[in-house]
Amino acid sequence: MKLLFINRLNSFPMDNCKYLFLESLNRGYDSVYFLNDYFYKAVISANKSLPFFPLSKIESFLKENKCELCIIDNWLTRDIFERLPKNLPILQLWHGIPIKDISLVHPSFRIPRLTKFFLFPSEKTKPLFKDVFLYERAVYAGYPRNLAMFKSSNDFLLGCDEEALDFIFTFREEGRKLILFAPTFRRDGATISISRTQMFSEGFLLRLDKMAEKFGASFVVKLHPLVSAWENLINEFLRTLKVKNIFIYPAHADIYPLLKYFDLLVSDYSSILWDWVLLKKPFLIYFPDYELVKHELLSYTLIDSLYRIPDKILTNESELLLSLKKFLKEKLKFNNACLSSLGRICFKNQENCIEDIFKEVCF
Predict the structure, then answer these.
(1) Is the pTM value of this prediction over 0.85?
(2) Given this structure, which CATH class describes domain 161-346?
(3) Contact between 177 and 218 (Cβ < 8 Å)
(4) For the domain bounded by 2-143+348-361, which CATH number is listed?
(5) What confidence tens digit (pLDDT) does each residue in 113-163 have?
């Protein structure tokens, strides 16, 4: 069976397509992956043995090859859909738990075509997608990207930042605690931006750096890809402060194969939190602008499930510092209630995700 994978947007390193594609090759499927020119050049320079192609060549490819299934992540624009054969079944993937209204993020990118399949993390997340995507059959199987947390593969590291890999592995060998800060983006009308959740004060960063030094820890900041423009500014700010234990992980690089090496996650309502729960490791909810953005949140069921779990929601830098200190003193543990309140709400039998997908869509 020949499988055609496509991603037009700048999100290849972290999308579910990447992991489903790599696992399809491991299972002997005849699979090819078409990327935009930027990521095509990047992945080919890193790995010339995998069947990646530039999206500009897809028409000539389809004239010479017959595909049984097309797998896409993110939205594809109408011109790309028009290049695909009308009788080609499509499996539509997504890359998060849409607590926010995803139909507003890219309003011009509504799917212009009914797809054969749509992949859901679980049955309980179906209402969050229903007004955005058109599909014939729902596939409830979990997200392929979470396989990277439980399975080691050099191929999974494709799209990770090599410099960051070196220092993260070095820190682990030194026995340092690794803390990941990974918030989602904010939007104001048509503008997608960073929030004050991501803009820590100078005093906070200096105190955090001193505390990390004392307890042998490192604090890694991973911005959402949609706010990657802020990355250089924050990096420059950190260099000005001369901190030694706070680092930026590139926004467009894949963090998922590295999640298992972190000891604590600090986030807000980013979908990475639901993935993180599967590792059974502690997390902190830092959400100082909740009152400002709660009107954007769609699912209060999921939000309530999320926010009942920690002792409290952290709403300022002082509270966050105290909780980080509690963790570093080994007084913050994983709450097993998370698995029922978060993991089971959002993910169905994650261990069999890949098998369940292929069972549903490969005919």
Answers:
(1) yes
(2) alpha beta
(3) yes
(4) 3.40.50.11820
(5) 678 999 988 887 787 777 677 889 999 888 999 889 888 888 888 888 889
